[in-house]
Amino acid sequence: MFSKLGIYSIKWTMNIGKLFLIFTGLLFLSSCIQEYVVNSDDNASENFELLWKTVDENYCFFEEKGIDWNAIKKEYEPLVSEKTSDEELFRICSSMLSELKDGHVNLYSDFNTFRYWKWFLDYPQNFSWPLVERNYLGAEYIIAGKLKAKTIRDVGYCRYESFTAEITSANIHHAIKQLGNIKGLIIDIRDNGGGSVALVNEFASCFFSKKTLTGYIKYKEGPGHDDFSDFFPQYIEPGSSVAFNGEIVILTNRLVYSAANDFVSTMKTLPNVTVIGDVTGGGGGAPFSSELYNGWRLRVARDPFFNIDKESIENGVVPDIQINMDKNEEIEGVDSMIEYAIDYLLYRHSE
C-alpha cells in the first residue's frame, strides 16, 4: 500500500507533467499565432491601404482637379508587398501623393518628408530678400513686431514675411503711423508661405471699416468625394479704426501660399486694393492630419475655401496687374516690382 506521502508525491508529479504539457502547448500555439497575426505597424500593404483610404475619404479637390483616385490606386498598389521596406514604401506613397499636385499634402516619417513643391518651383521667383534689405530697407527702417516698414519716395512700404510670425493690429497701426503722410501703401508678402488664418484676420481687419463678406468655406461631411456642406460665409470684423484708407498695392509671387493666399483673396474685396505681381501659389484647402499604423503622419487638404464669387482659390489668386521682375534690373540692384508699385501709387494719387 502506498503511504499518503507517496500518493501526494505521485499526484504532484502528475500535476507538474500536466503543467509542462499545457505550457508547451501554449508555446506551440503562440508560435503558430505569431506566424499568422499581421503586425499592422510593419505591414506595408495595410499602411498603404490606410493612406489611400484616408486620402480618398478626406481630400477635397478630386472633382476640381479631375483626379481618378481609384485608377491611381490600381497603378501603385501592385508595387507594394510584404517584402516592401519602409524606404521603398515611403517612395511609393510619395509618388502616389504627388499625383494630387498639392502643396498641402505631406507625409512625415522619421527619415524623410514628402512635399510637393512644383507649384512654385516651376515659376519665376520674383523676389530677392537681400536686394530688398540692402537697397530698399537699408539700415534705418521701422520694426513693429514682425512687420518691417519704411517710406520710399513718399510711398509706405511694409514687408510681412510669414503668417506664422505673431503680429497684432497695434503693430500695424504703429508702423503705418510712423510712415507719415504717405501717398499710398505697399504690402509686400512675396515668399509668404502662409500660417495662421487668425493672423490673416488680425492683419486684414486693420483695413476694413465695416463687417464685410470676404469669401466662403465648405466643410467635408462624409467619405464621398462630393460630401460637402453648403457654402458658409466668411466675414472680416473691422478693428477699432482703419490703419490706412488710401490706395494699397499688395505685391505677390508664386510662393504666396495657404493663409497668405487667403489674405490676398480677402484684401482683394476692398475697392482701394490692387494686387500686383504673379498668380499666388494657391493652397485653398484647410488641412487635415492623421496617422498611419506605423506612426507616419499624413496631411491632406479637406475643407475648401472660395472667394466672394464662390470660386475656388485652390489654384491661386490672379493679380489685377501681372508682372515679373526684370532680370537685368535685378542684376543692377533694382526690384522692378517695387518700382512699378511705387509709380502706380503715385500716379493714382495724382489723379
Summarize the structure.
The protein is an alpha/beta fold and 351 residues long. Helix content is 38%, strand content 18%.
Describe, in plain words, how this protein is organized in 3D:
With about 350 residues, the chain is an alpha/beta fold. It has 2 domains: about 45-120, no CATH class; about 130-285 and about 300-350, 2-enoyl-CoA Hydratase, Chain A, domain 1 (Alpha-Beta Complex), CATH 3.90.226. About 40% of the residues lie in helices and about 20% in strands. The chain contains 12 helices and 13 strands. A 7-stranded mixed beta sheet has the order 3-4-5-6-9-10-13, sandwiched between helices. Strands 1, 2, 7, 8, 11 and 12 form a 6-stranded antiparallel beta sheet that branches.
Write the SSE topology.
Layout: H1 4-36, H2 44-58, H3 62-65, H4 69-76, H5 86-98, E1 106-108, E2 113-114, H6 118-121, H7 129-137, E3 142-144, E4 147-152, E5 155-159, H8 169-178, E6 185-188, H9 197-204, E7 212-217, E8 232-236, E9 248-252, H10 259-267, E10 273-277, E11 285-291, E12 297-306, E13 321-322, H11 327-331, H12 336-350
Parallel strand pairs: 5-6, 6-9, 9-10, 10-13
Antiparallel strand pairs: 1-2, 1-12, 3-4, 4-5, 7-8, 7-12, 11-12
Helix pairs in contact: 9-10
